[in-house]
Amino acid sequence: MTAPRASTAVLARLLPTLVLFALAAATLLAVASAVPRAALAHAGYDRSSPPDGAVIARPPERLDAWFTQEIFRRGGANALEVWNEAGRRMDEDDLVMDDANRSHLSVGLPADLPAGRYTVEWRTLSAVDGDTAEGSFAFTIDPTAPEPMPPPTTGEPADGSGGRPAAEESPGGSIATSGGGIGWWALGAAAALAASLALGARALLAPAAASPAGRAREGRR
């Protein structure tokens, strides 16, 4: 009967550790699900000027697009191409990568770009994972469209943030702060995992120390 009793004692000692392991695993899964999809994807479309689906009165000098990862500079690997409804390419074919922000590409537009709907086809090579991505967005030029409101020159920012870092919307539609960190979730998961490992090691070592051989070793010390 000694062996079953010993097994029961070991299981009772390990039960709190197993519970902590389960809690740590659940916390880590929650953290992983909270990471914005932009951090896990390739250099996909984030935003643009003009925005996707925008209707503007006149074309800007350049079309700007920002992506979810930094872009690797390689000839022909990245592209911003503006096409009209007839399938004719209308941009100036002068793609520029912003050295201060490697997730930003721009291409020139002719000043006399006529009214109509335009499709922007983009292609990127990620500097983070080395993978390519491609997609498209569109905007429309309509001379009857209202002019955009000018930005405020005094007082609080138009978004009401009062100078605080603004929140950015991730491509999946969830809100992620501009800091991009996981914060207390990660700290809690790390603490729970460390505690469970420490208790697990203690529980596994305790039977050996309590055995006659373990007591004999302690006595020789």
Description:
The chain is elongated, with a radius of gyration of 29 Å. With 221 residues, the chain is an alpha+beta fold. Strand 5 and strand 6 form a beta hairpin. Helix content is 33%, strand content 24%. Residues 34-39 and 155-185 have low confidence and may be disordered.
Summarize, please:
With 221 residues, the chain is an alpha+beta fold. It has helices spanning 2-34, 37-40, 184-210, 212-220; strands spanning 45-49, 54-56, 62-67, 79-83, 96-97, 104-108, 116-125, 132-141, 167-169, 175-177.
Summary tags:
221 residues; alpha+beta; 4-stranded antiparallel sheet; 4-stranded mixed sheet; 10 strands; 33% helix; 24% strand
Mean pLDDT: 73
Number of strands: 10
Question: What Rg do the Cα atoms give?
Answer: 29 Å
* Percent helix range: 25-40%
Shape: elongated
The arrangement of helices and strands along the chain is: HHEEEEEEEEEEHH
Physical arrangement of strands within the biggest beta sheet:
1-3-6-5
Query: Strand content of the residues, in percent?
Result: 15-25%
Structural class by secondary-structure content: alpha+beta
Termini separation: 32 Å
Number of H- or I-type helical stretches: 4
Note the main sheet.
Answer: 4 strands, antiparallel
Low-confidence stretches: 34-39, 155-185
